[in-house]
Amino acid sequence: FGSFRMYTTYKISNHPGGSYSLMFNDTMGFERSAGHGVHVEDIKLALKGHVKDGYKFNPKEPLTEGDFYNPSPTLDDRVHVLVSVFPADKSSEMTGEDVKKMREVRRAASEMRIPQLVLLTRIDEACPKVKENINNVYKSKCLKEHVDKCSSLLGIPLNCVFLVKNYHSETKVNDDIHALILVALRQMVSVGEDFLNDLQD
Ligand SMILES: *[C@@H]1O[C@H](CO)[C@@H](O)[C@H](O)[C@H]1NC(C)=O
Questions:
Q1: I need a surface site. Which of 7, 79, 91, 158 has the fewest CB within 10 A?
Q2: Which helix (H) or strand (E) holds 196?
């Protein structure tokens, strides 16, 4: 997803007409320095469903009221899975501040019992062997180190970290790139279903 400042909804269309019941709501990133990037409180509000589509994040202060504030979110409005995106090739640029914010969001999500996954992106940019051949993902020591680092930085179990290669220069879809994305997507759907089922118990 982009680093847009706006809270943006993405639906996946399913022909003919209509779209899947899966929906992605994208926030602004943390932008690597204090006073910039999305406010942690806004992410917590979004988790609870208080933030409406199109809201322009203000790094200086969190949303409290107004047109983009939903005072009474339904279960549908709430987040069912928290997915944190972590670029593998940029992990050394992560500051203590970013990590602190990500951990804080994670803790808030845990308190709400929201399942959490991490997408480790740009894996090819982080590891030359993977760039050479995408099928080296599960063999690459370099990538394993990135996964371990990401898992311990964010305090998230290894089996919750998913590997993704971003499309950039490719002009056509590629099955190997797709396969990685689908593994992650399937897990998102599955833990999201578990979350909803547990609520109904
Ligand atoms: C995601 O976006 C949709 C459509 O704008 C909205 O109905 C839903 O409440 C949003 N979900 C969250 C968790 O903000």
A1: 158
A2: helix 175-200
Residues 40-77 pLDDT 10s = 999 999 999 999 999 998 888 899 999 999 999 999 99
- Give me the pLDDT at residue 33, please: 57
Q: DSSP assignment, residue 93?
A: G
Q: How far is the CA of 44 from the centre of ligand 1 (A)?
A: 14
Q: Output the CA 184–ligand 1 centroid distance in Å.
A: 21
For residue 116, the model assigns a pLDDT of: 96
Whole-angstrom distance, CA of residue 200 vs CA of residue 196: 7
Question: Which atom of ligand 1 is the closest one to the Cα of 47?
Answer: 13
Confidence of residue 169 (pLDDT cuts 50, 70, 90): confident
In the chain, the amino acid numbered 107 is R
C-alpha distances out from residue 184 to 42, 58, 110, 122, 165, Å: 25, 30, 20, 14, 11
Structure tokens at 127: 């590891």
| Three-class secondary structure of residue 198 per DSSP | helix
